[in-house]
Fold these 3 entries.
Entry 1:
Amino acid sequence: MIDITTTTRVQNIIKSSSLPTVDGNLIADMIDGLTPVAERWLGRKLQKTAYTQQMDVRRGQSVFQLDAYPVETSPALALRNDLGRDFTGTAIDADNYYLDLERGTITFDKSYLVWGPGVLQAIWTGGMASSTTILVSSSAFEGIVLGADLQIAHVFQRRHEVGATSFAAEGGSIAAARSFGRLCEATIDLWTPYRRVGRRR
């Protein structure tokens, strides 16, 4: 899993607020904690890599959502619909569905699927960036990175409040850094345009 931002970016925001010297190790731990939180909230993976996803198919369902997007065109998406769930047969012909590369949605409009739990398998390459360096320099996802910067700075500023004693600097516990609670409104506003279709606040 790649990180959603860098310690340098967060430190620069905190320093601009005239706060004391920032412990880089603490910020790094907070980034580690926020990254999976962000993926759950967004409903999508950050890292661009190869994925295999097994999905349920409801009776009459025609639209499916991949967990990582944008979707790469090479290698091409491979879909298999198998009631036995061994997925060794020929992939479904791409003429039978429409793949939205930017949104990661698959819409079947020329064929029907066998329905049941876990009977549709997708193998593809997708995600936002292959590394943190690429993610933070991408204009396409700058709102996600800035939202992460502001969220970590927000939590850091509250680290001495009751219940945040685990935010010790050197060698202390970091449990609280991995439990962010409510996202700040600025982060929500920045992340919302990137959120998976159908996800609720």
Note: The longest strand covers residues 116-126.
Entry 2:
Amino acid sequence: MSLADIKTKGQLKPPKICLYGPGGIGKTTFASTMPDVIIVQTEDGIGKLKANHFDVCKAYDDGTDKSFIGRLNTLLNEEHDFKVLAIDSLDWLEALIHKHVCEENGWKEIGSQAFGKGYAAALEVWKDYVRLIDRIRDERKMTILQIAHDKVVKYDDPTTESYDRHQIKLNNRAADLIIEHCDAVFFTRFKRGAVQKKNSSGGLSSEIHQGDRTIFTQDNPNWMAKNRYGLPAEMPFDWKQIREEMIK
């Protein structure tokens, strides 16, 4: 160790991102717009989109290159020009992990073990997964985008009353690991607003108006989000604009 090793500014590496939100909002479409992307599917979300992708993985790790881990090892070890790895989606990956853990241990269901033993075993597999995508990010210089759906949960805040909150649709242990591991967790949804209109009786009534898709980058009582780039709290549903803001 030498004082000459001290640095005054962090090195900007390719980001590790989780993008989550309701189904059908266009998360896979967002991924497909990222330059030089390869999508590893755990669900059939490509549809008619034109994007480089592997077929849907049917197993987490069965020792073949067609399994989820096999696909990631291919991207780690073989020569290619892809710059972005998109995983679609984490909640379907969780189902593959749970199936893998149950088969390895001879369990019927992941939740059948006392004291959360099944979910604890699954968490160890999740840790192996994040170590592998760290290697892909660092050794292959790839941005990592992990897509997930959302769920609404009752959030108990000791400083105020309980309220509903959007979170990543994963077991809490897995979700906490992904949130901690990522450089940015983005929540996306359509903008909504109430419009006052006259009704048939001459009075006013409110109608909910749905606007453009938007991405939220900072934590809020209504959703979990974060970023390590000082991004604005709300940004357009556009990777190019987000990336430009990250590297300022």
Note: The domain at 13-246 is CATH 3.40.50 (Rossmann fold).
Entry 3:
Amino acid sequence: MSDFESNKILGGIGSIMMMIPALNIVGLILLFISMKNFSEYYRDTNIIRNVITSGIFSIIGLSLILLGASLIVGHITFFGAIAGLTLVVVGFICQLLMAMFIKNALYTLANHSGEQLFRTSGTLLWYGALLSIIIVGVLLIWIAYLILAIAFFSLKTNTTTTSYNYTSPSPFQTSATSNAGARFCSYCGAPISPESVFCTRCGKQLNQK
């Protein structure tokens, strides 16, 4: 099994686990690993950077909400209740920022992979976080993770439908074109442009010289 397929499975299983409260932590870890690897695969650090920022806001927000709730419950004074409510509001804002950054990461992944279900999932996660104080928000988040799992399992490598009737170049052709900067894929032998990062025939990542 290729690394690409392994990362698909990690992301899909992690997304499904995020739908089950008891497995949230494990699902979050699997999603983080998958997104980190896809960030490296597509050579875009914005993916993992947004994921990490999202995780930081999530931890801060959850901590503030729990602290605020304990102040509200544990103090019957007016100022204690106000302080607790303030912490809960700030924590909720952090949760919105968390959703915004994970949405950005999924949008970037959608742009690179061409799988637009990542964009749909990111949008639903954002609106779910915005409406999380009511039952509709929780339902949207659950649906978002379901769509995210489908998006991961639907991922395909960077391939195109372009076909080539290619034969190995003769020594004369090789010497004639080498000065022009022509390149050939070391995996399938297809002609590629000098600036290509991936082969347009087999989708393999090319060695950069």
Note: Residues 159-209 form one domain.
